[in-house]
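**Sequence with structure:**
===
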Amino acid sequence: MKKYFSKIIALAVFISLMLILSACGAGGSEDDKGASSEKKETLKVVTNAAYAPFEYMDKGEVVGFDIDFINAVAKEAGYDVDIKHTGWDPMFAEVQGKQADLAASSVSITEDRKQTYDFSVPYFESTLMILIPEDSDIQNALDLKGKTVAVQNGTTGQTAAEKILGGDGTVKKFEDNVLAIMELLNGGADAVVADNAVVNEYIKNNPDKKLKAIKDPENFDSEYYGLMFPKGSKLKAELDKAINSILENGTYSEIYQKWFGVEPDIDILKNQQ
């Protein structure tokens, strides 16, 4: 009888040990699952890669200031990014329809756009400029009245040109600034209105085209670019925090100097918050 009970006890101890080992094994699997769950989430980012030096195609890859910027912001926030060139109008549609997590494409923050989208804190100050032939008699924005002005459709350049002309002249709208500039070069327009960095970049890279740029701070206010999210996006708060981190730790300044060769005015960006 004692021998019988001894066998039962031994069997019970054996089963208990197996259960403990099984539990440990299951615990290890949960740890493995936990480790894989720490894998970075990939954000779908859309852009219009026809806006050098901010975003453009180079050997099949999207590159530019905005691309370096969003990569740095995502890294700071703990995300990976998948960047897709969609074109300007489709980019807005994809963000609004939540087919994309956000857009990084030199999008100016405006009150009108804020009705439909959420924006990050500002990350770039921009002003509009007028691109004209070197022999043009246009000296400021008011001289555009009665002229033909080429712009990229759906941009603040279009809005500003239409406001200044007020029906006295023609605003020609194109899919991107490259096509607007081509219209100018082909004689189909007297001027192009676009962001300063884009205009200056084109002049720098195309000295043979004999074009010049005009600033007009009296008629063109500063604009600020922001990352654009679907309305109510939970990502905004996270990426706002990441933007401020790279503004403060020197990463933003490195990216800015790489693309524009000068130090950015961090204070003016912080003041806009």
